[in-house]
Amino acid sequence: MVLQNSNNIPSEQFDTSALSKELDLPTSPDDNRHTQVRIRVRIPKHYHEEPIISQLISQHGVTVNIAAALLSANARDDGWFDLELKGTSGQIRSALIYINDLDLEVWHDSNFQEESW
């Protein structure tokens, strides 16, 4: 599914359980090459008090850059984060599986250039 975001940039909603194929991440556990992926995540208001981004860093070893965010202080609405995840393919895969397990809506920015470091 291709969606238009607020900047009129096409992005794709995806199921992170199929992320290896969708993002073309190497599947070998011995592959230690670094890569990055840019995603947009919807955080439902019932998760506002949960340390989701902190868990991505501490439990999955990825570097997280918050490129943009929208989260109201009064927690009446869902929040959105535009995240750049950097790490090995395995770390990124693990982080995206964690996000999938939380059942969060995720969009992959199809125009963001994934690069090896």
UniProtKB/TrEMBL annotation:
Please give the SMART domains that the UniProt record associates with this protein.
NIL
Q: Which Gene3D superfamilies match?
A: 3.30.70.260
Region (Disordered): which ranges?
Answer: 1-32
The segment(s) forming the NIL domain are: 35-109
Q: Which InterPro entries match?
A: ACT-like_dom_sf (IPR045865), NIL_domain (IPR018449)
Q: Which residues form a coiled coil?
A: none
Compositionally skewed regions (Polar residues) per UniProt: 1-19
Q: What is this protein called?
A: NIL domain-containing protein
